[in-house]
Structures are given as C-alpha cells and as structure tokens.
Write a structure and sequence with these properties.
The chain is mostly helical and 100 residues long. The chain folds into 2 domains: 2-69; 75-99. It has 4 helices and no strands. It has helices at 2-5, 10-15, 27-67, 79-94. The longest helix has 41 residues, at 27-67. It is rod-shaped. The N and C termini lie far apart (71 Å). Belongs to the GpsB family. It comes from Niallia nealsonii. InterPro entries: Cell_cycle_GpsB (IPR011229), DivIVA_domain (IPR019933), DivIVA_fam (IPR007793). Residues 55-79 are annotated as: Disordered.
C-alpha cells in the first residue's frame, strides 16, 4: 500500500526538532510551514484510505455481479415472432391510419 511506502507521517513532521543556528530561519515561519505540510499529509492519508476502501468495495461488487447468472434469454423467439408482435403493436397504436 502507498501508506507503507511513505517515509514520513504527519506525526514525524510534527515531532521534528531543528537546532537553532546563527543566521538560521525564523522558527515561527518554519513551524507555520510545517503545520501546512502536516495538514496536507493528513488529507492525503485520509484520501488514500477512502480510495482503498472504495477500490475494495468496487472489486467486491464486480466479483458479486460476475457470480450472478445471466438473465434468461428469449430462447425460441424468432425474427418472425418479433416482427409479428411489432406489427400487432403498430396496428394497436396507429389503427387504420397505418394503412391509409
């Protein structure tokens, strides 16, 4: 899974400590940026989980639908029978107007 391949977690980013140095970055700015990264990681992780669940659900749905038997066919019905039914339907719907 993708979560297993990721090297950092939101917790790792949150707990990372940087040593102050001369002429270093402002710690407040670094913390604010890391907070944004943490939120993105959490959102990414949540999206991955949702997509994995949806993927499993859809695989199960495909598996279930493939196990179902196909709908019974209209065995014994010929083209002549279909044309006869169509003709009767046209006569019923259009009546005598059909032949005028």
């Amino acid at each position: 899974m993708l979560a297993d391949k990721m090297k950092l977690t939101a917790k790792d980013i949150l707990e990372k400590e940087f040593k102050p140095a001369m002429r270093g970055y402002k710690p407040e700015e670094v913390d604010q940026f890391l907070d944004l990264i943490i939120k993105d990681y959490e959102t990414l992780h949540q999206e991955i989980e949702e997509l994995q669940q949806e993927n499993l659900r859809m695989k199960k749905q495909v598996e279930d639908s493939s196990k179902r038997q196909p709908a019974p066919s209209t065995a014994g019905t010929t083209n002549f029978d279909i044309l006869k039914r169509l003709s009767n339907l046209e006569k019923h719907v259009f009546g005598s107007k059909l032949y005028d």
